[in-house]
Amino acid sequence: MNKPTPSQTVGPFFGFALPFEHDYEASAGRNSVRVEGTLTDGQGEPVPDGLIEIWSDDEFARCRTDEEGGFRFVIARPKGNSSGGEAPHLEVAVFARGLLRHLQTRMYFPDDDRSNAADPVLEAVEASRRGTLIAERDGAVLRFDIRLQGERETVFFAI
Amino acid sequence: MAADDDIAFEPPYLFPDYRATVLRAPSQRLVRLPDEWFEKSAGPVFGRIPIRAADSDLTRQHAGEPLGERIVVGGQVLDSDGRPVPGAIVEVWQANSAGRYIDPADDHPAPIDPNFTGAGRCLTDEQGRYRFVTVKPGAYPWKNHLNAWRPAHIHFSVFGATIGSRLVTQMYFPGDPLLAMDPILQSIPDQRGRDLLIASFDIDSTVPIWALGYRWDIVLRGRNAVPRSDAE
Asked: What is the DSSP letter of B85?
């Protein structure tokens, strides 16, 4: 077996290279959701040089964080037919200066209490931390903040 | 498969010599995903990120040619089971030959080159091969510690067949004295892992009277390299 090429940080200077037109708007369909959040560090300070990538069932979106650490997505709501009894969710990857490897997390939906309660991945997370993986409804927007470290640190997965 | 050995080939999240990790590395234990996650298709990304044929030549994006040492950087994208990865998306970005990024956030007082942006994209061919024409990036100072300099490098972002094979990394040049002092490269514990990020000078892809060739193969995680459920 060949060893996989090791990861290195995306660094601070990807902003002229990785964004593309309409990168954060994957979907204009009726079934799309708008997600907004803030990426913060261990002192609660915004991370203005982060890059978030999101996969839904059939869609991909990418968003560079802004000066306030903010990011946003418009993406189709997953249908929730994934194997293993998993509740509908988005796969979320986080890249930033200071992250030597990217971080992988998930966003579940706040109005799916029953399927979330049966989700094996959520079940494997300590109950006190589970909420960091579930977005909050804020009017027409789903709010999903990502805290890299410290208080209410987002749950990240081993990849 | 020895999990410790694999870990030694990847950087940790927390590596205090690289200061920016201190407040950004997660402090809680990472949670295991089901094995099936590592097989989940990256499909939706293909066709989403725009890639034009001209995007692989970074020396032809402006009215004139950029200053610097013209180079060809190419290689093969394989998975860790040894299979070529055709149709992989490869994105690159870099500083110009003076060590300055076009990015407005870069305040290094070296000249911008009006004929160089420093960003490119391509898809790998049926044998998993990629090729970029560019100029050799310069080293540049950063504020991590006193008199810190990044060795010359090209950033790579690669999408293979699965979400689990997603890779963002950096390619370095052989023989650079700054490699040994760079906390970002040195965060990889095992020298053999660090060596995987260093390209080879390649006389075979060197184009006579035109450009020096560097070869760098990229290995994405395949089925045999997925972390096992029983490994803690």
From this structure: -
